[in-house]
Amino acid sequence: MAEKTIAEKEAQYNLKLKQVSLDQEVKDREIRKQEQRINDFQELESVEQRFYNEVSYLQLDDKTNGFLQQAIEESRWLSREEQAYLEERKETFHQEKRLLLEKEDQLFTERKKLFDNGRSDSTWD
Hints:
Elements: H1 6-55, H2 62-121
Helix pairs in contact: 1-2
């Protein structure tokens, strides 16, 4: 089987680079969506906090007030858990994006070496 020509190898690198570029676009969209989720979550937390502040001014019996305080604490715990999850997902997307950038750099370097080797292999008269 004949060795691939430089043009065929270049076509393969270009195809791989195009796929990496498409993957990067997808990752960028995922990052933007995740950032929007975080913003939406923070807005919801703000509304929730205003609600709890308003409820705290109500005259409630001890049992109801205790139940409300328990619900508030549980809600805050869940909020911290959700916030941590959202931030973790965002960081994961950024790590995946960095890996794609590294892969792209690697492919560009390999393609450049291909051309450099191709030039040194050919004879110039």
